[in-house]
Amino acid sequence: MPLLRSIGVTLEMIKWEHSVFALPFALTGAMLAAHGWPAWSKLLWIVVCMIAARSAAMAFNRWADAELDAANPRTRMRAIPAGHLTRGFAGGFTLVMSGLFILGAAELNRLTLLLSPVILAVLFFYSYTKRFTRWSHLFLGLALGLAPTGAWIAIRGSLDPRILVLTAAVLFWVAGFDVLYACQDEGHDRSTGLFSLPATLGTDPAFRIARAMHVIMLALLVWLVFLFHLGPVAGAGIAAVALLLLWEHLIVSPRDLTRLNAAFFTMNGVISVIFFLFVAADLLLRHRN
Questions:
Q1: Is the dihedral of CA 135, 137, 143, 149 positive or negative?
Q2: Residue 67 belongs to a domain with what CATH number?
Q3: Based on the structure, what is the number of domains in the chain?
């Protein structure tokens, strides 16, 4: 059926499986708020909101960037510029996923519902930042970094400033690997007037900034452990994240981007899951004792 085929193409276009990047950090925020496992109904709606928000953001990004993607040799075979999907369908999918996100937010509590349009505005605004600022990577980091704060509010119904440290950590983590990813398009972005750190400063400085961002991320995670009085298990999780980030930076260099997909997709998914598992284990062990 044409509709099912279009949905399948859309799911491939938005890479919905990459929700694993931010979802574990959202679950970490939920567990910190609940001092252990939250109610399963809360977890269910948090997962629904995460998947729906990311799906809406990615579909909107492909809709907004259709002409830019068509002009870029690396992205011209994406679904919309290649003619596999219409912009109208992508826009409609964005609306449906946005509605699902707002529904999920309404099922959590009043504050999440009130904030849901703000979250969507941040997610959609990111798609335009590359048109006017070299720091678009930080906006992407913010878009994903809102996940743990949103999950905290979903559990508590209020905001604790401590959880913003985890949001900042995710922000610099995502921004760092997005800087590396943008190195693929350095020449194209510069020639077409698009902004990114690699296009503005060059690949070598961009790599140094990405490394600095990941060092900041690790420092923030250490601060998070102290703020929430977490134990050695969570500390071991940060050590594991540090080793994985080190490996990520060792397998790519300004003159060799051939393993960038392994660093960007595979390793970052592993990093988020590993951190969540260690923090979850720490919280559950401490709660048991």
A1: negative
A2: 1.10.357.140
A3: 1
